[in-house]
Amino acid sequence: MAKARQPEIPDDIAKMTFEKALTELESIVQKLEGGDVDLEKSIDIYERGTLLKAHCEAKLAAAQAKVEKITLSADGSVSASSADIS
Fold this sequence. Notes:
This protein has helices at residues 11-14, 18-34, 39-66; strands at residues 68-72, 78-82. It is mainly alpha-helical. The protein has one domain (11-82). The two termini are 21 Å apart.
């Protein structure tokens, strides 16, 4: 099965923190769920929402890759390894 192509993230979104992107995405969802936006505007903000979602997913994947699993062995020594949390 072919893997879906990732969308090109615009610079203004790429520079956002995870929290800022998530806040804007939540705002878009509320607008779309409210049904008070005309069709053309709905399409535009839906498209931006998909870009924000992709950005948030990339930020989460990067954070997940940095997470380390710390273990304590029976002799009291501590070791760290990449976490397998997928």
